[in-house]
């Protein structure tokens, strides 16, 4: 926690450069619960017929309101992190504010 407090601009790493990872998607919403089925449908556009798992973080109060956070994982696929971001853009999911693209930079 001390490290996080002293490094507020620290980014989240989900893979090294040119390292294959399991596709992962951060999904955050404020004041509204996340529709799990809708997110699964979106991810299935990118990776048809693949199993999708998710982890839920406890909701918490923020300056923007109550924040709901999930992380979705796709089984049976390995991909570069940068390719995930491009897929989100190609399918216009970057226009949906619930998808956090910053983890793919």
Condensed summary:
This protein is of the alpha+beta class and 105 residues long. It contains three helices and six strands.
In words, what does this structure look like?
The chain has 105 residues and is of the alpha+beta class. It has one domain. Helices cover 25% and strands 32% of the residues. The strands form 2 sheets. A 4-stranded antiparallel β-sheet has the order 3-4-2-6. The protein is globular.
As residue ranges, the low-confidence spans are: none
**Tally of helical runs:** 3
Overall geometry? globular
Mean pLDDT: 88
Helix- and strand-based class? alpha+beta
Strand tally is 6
Strand content: 25-35%
Biggest sheet record? 4 strands, antiparallel
What strand line-up does the widest sheet have?
Answer: 3-4-2-6
Number of separate structural domains: 1
Order of helices and strands: HEEHEEEHE
Task: Spell out the key features of this protein.
25% helix, four-stranded antiparallel sheet, 105 residues, 6 strands, alpha+beta, two-stranded antiparallel sheet
What is the topology?
Layout: H1 2-6, E1 20-21, E2 24-30, H2 36-46, E3 52-62, E4 65-74, E5 79-80, H3 81-90, E6 99-100
């Amino acid at each position: 926690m001390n490290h996080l407090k002293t490094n507020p601009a620290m980014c989240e790493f989900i893979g090294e450069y040119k390292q294959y990872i399991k596709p992962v998607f951060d999904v955050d919403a404020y004041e509204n619960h996340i529709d799990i089925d809708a997110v699964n449908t979106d991810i299935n556009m990118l990776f048809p017929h693949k199993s999708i798992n998710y982890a839920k973080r406890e909701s918490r109060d923020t300056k923007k309101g109550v924040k709901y956070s999930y992380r979705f994982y796709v089984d049976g696929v390995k991909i570069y992190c940068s390719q995930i971001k491009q897929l989100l853009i190609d399918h216009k999911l970057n226009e949906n504010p619930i998808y956090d693209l910053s983890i793919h930079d």
